[in-house]
Amino acid sequence: MSESTGANTAKPSSSVKLVLLGEAAVGKSSLVLRFVNNDFQENKEPTIGAAFLTQKCSLPTRTIKFEIWDTAGQERFASLAPMYYRNAQAALVVYDVTKPSSLTKAKHWVAELQRQASPGIVIALVGNKLDLTNDANEAAGEAQAEGEHEPSPADGDEATEETQEEPDVSNGDARKVPTREASAYAEDEGLLFFETSAKTGHNVVDVFTAIANAIPESSLKSGRGAGAGTGQTSLSGGRPAEDSRVNLGERGAATAKEGCAC
Amino acid sequence: MVSTADGPAQDANNPETENSAISPPPSSSLQQPSVSADRESEAAQEEERPPPLPPRPNTLRLLDEGGASLRTSRPGAPTNLQSRATTAVSLTDIGCHDAGKESHVVREGSETLKAQASLNHLTSSRGSETGDTASIRSSGPQGDIGDVENVFGDFVATDTGLIRKHSTGLLQFPEFQADDVEDDFASEFEPVGEVDEEGGNEEEVLANWKAKRKHYLILSAAGKPIWTRHGDGGLISTYIGVIQTIISFYEDSKDPLSSFTAGDTKFVIVTKGPLHLVAISRMLESDTQLKLQLEALYMQILSTLTLPSLTHLFSIRPSTDLKRPLQGSETLLSTLADSFTKGSPSTLLSALECLKIRKSHRQAINNTLLKTKVSSLLYGLVVAGGRLVNVVRPKKHSLHPGDLQLLFNMIFEAEAVKAGGGESWIPVCLPGFNSSGYLYMYVSFLDLRDDANAATNDTTTTTKEESVAIVLISADKESFFELQGMRDAFVEVCVFNLSNPPYHHHHPCQRPEANGCRATSKWRETAASRSSKKPSRKVAPARRTSSRGRSCITSCTSRGRMSSSLCRPTTLSFPLSRAGED
Asked: The pTM is what?
């Protein structure tokens, strides 16, 4: 994994703030856990609030230190999301390939990011739980495959009907979101697109590597990654500046907080 | 029953409120002498009558109203206080003394129990000073005669056999462990299963559901199921309907229903704003106990949503389905409910358990916390294995045990935070502190394993007992990185202290007053013994004497006492000594 690159200290290193968004129970935390610890837990309890993790990712020319905000997917935490995606250089919008509504939610997140987040943000659309589908064992790189294994056109309803005809769970295909539908959307919006399985580890590291590659050099230099290696200190140093441009969406929450009488 | 206010004092003053609703009939206490003489028959009875849980003091109300009135009603002499204990067994003794003639019959049956109680004291006071034990007991609830008799009656009927059978397993709290030794008790927490598509197994699932001894249901005033410990909304919707009907029937008559009994099953209803919380127990708990448990569940809901947002949701649409806003927090409610059912002592007593460590070590940790604290910090806690190690807090704000319990439940019982593997930033409302807004909690688990072990990345091996968490709470939702910096600094200093023996620290002053002054003007270490944040509050006499000549922090925190509201009699705490400590 990427952590094997600790020896390459000579390479320039920069921090990248990455945020995971998506509906509850699509596997955001599991993706991160796979990426950071190469581990997987069945029946993980839902994240509360957000978790912060870091992981290095080595590229040929430089090392990227991901500072990952793994947010909770529940509705009630949605109002906190701006705090996490503000100034993020990358976002992973995750949906569940077995749950069409999660793609709808993912599209909402993409729209919100495009509207509110920093302009240069790199967004990756990730369909997780590929292990539940028939094509779980297909090779990586199917992101560009345009869904040739999916006979139906990019019509979610039709695909849903088809998959429901296969009740055999052990061998059946639980896929409800055709690859083509999601990848077409990703192409339209200019997003990176992957289908992953946090359970098997399929494509997980590829997602992060692709994001690391996609982040423009310029944004790394101008960004808070300047104090490479000491990302955290430079982050906290950057706080006041960020606070001064608190966006309007945050005001409501801020008042509520002041109600805490502290 | 709804009118029981004013904290534990109510129990002492209004024994009739208890008696009116608690199930064992008066005859049970009369039976006791014969029952205790005939132990075989008790052992037989024990199977069908689970032992009761000891009463739980009324924290929630005390949070607001304080316990001053209570203390004045206390006889006050230390000798008298010595006789007041915090456990149910000892409480029984209190009851006997207090009740005097009325309950002398009861006392005769208590021989085994008394022996147990003294064993209890022996174990728990191992390595502690008498003064401390005294002060612990001094904070016990006032003798609730009615309650005592009932509790006691059940003990005699059920407990003696258990004690004999399982005497090896009895540690400090045999009366609590009696629950666990029930053969079928483990099944209490098993899922009831799900009704399959065709509904073919519905009866089976329903039978599983009915077999549970304890149920908690939360429904909205409009009758929508919100949460249930066992089963799901679909399974129990008919029962929800029945309960809703019963509750609303009494609501119409302007006399809200608070509890009723059917056979040995007790139903307790607490209405909080737009919510009805219902406990159904066959475990012979008292109304007060169940009511407190329901109130704690309500606190958990507030902690998730905050009071204004809860009120708002229902004011807009009374038929709001609260399941959705609460999504993801069901496990918190369930683990909290299970801790009540299991009868974990700290939950039952609204107290928190502190880790027993050397005074100098705690002092070092405390100094380090104070040294490294950042401006946005509100509360800073170090928690090891679900036990409190130290707290720092601003002078003005105490920490409520009920709030801490919610936090500990979230951090240690529900796996959600720990399983994340990283640092967490959690918006949480502490209803005892302020129910109207969120605080933000930074949680970081320390990896105390050797580097060799840590290299395996095996995150699953750290059990609750081993895990050490640093919990930093701020009112500023942007302060994550500041608190993270504080955590790093704190760990750095602690590691430095490890390599250089901790005694280079200025040693704690020997007098509590001086110790208080050592803290910065705005901050103080939240020593458990801080007499009170309000000067007008009296300090329990026993503690005043007991902590003299010792550092106030260590004299109390090391004994398993939680801070801030210790002066209130409800905050019971007691030493749960752990083997191998100190």
From this structure: 0.64
